[in-house]
Amino acid sequence: MNYIEIIGFVAAILTTSAFLPQVYKTWKTKDVSGLSLPMLVIFFVGIIAWLVYGFYKNSPSMIMANSITLISAFLLIYFKLKYSKK
Amino acid sequence: MNYIEIIGFVAAILTTSAFLPQVYKTWKTKDVSGLSLPMLVIFFVGIIAWLVYGFYKNSPSMIMANSITLISAFLLIYFKLKYSKK
């Protein structure tokens, strides 16, 4: 692994780490009032595009980061749909 | 511009678009209670790392997306510090 990918993995760890507390907080509090469904869906589609881009660019760090973020975004959409019904 | 960069730019537009309403909402409401300063700082440093990575990968879409997100993250940190004092 070259040093460019090390920078990429540091970036991946930092940005995904910053995102996970939001998922955890939403899961625990079930408070989805501050989350916008259209915004989450736009974000989700955007992450899919970044993932495709990461594959084309042969970027392991982008693939890793966007895979984790895709799951996070999916969970937030799921929570939003589930807890908004109440 | 090749079709890979088109995917990248679509990704860039979608993910940055999803982030901007948060900045606008925080600016208007001055409600920073839901924002965690350590999380924002970790995210900010992560975006700097992605920006550096984007330059090394010669990726115009990564450079564009991360520059905009860097400004957004900076503004959120600024709002957090400014409005938390009240």
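qc> Helices of chain B lie at 3-29, 37-56, 60-84.
qc> done
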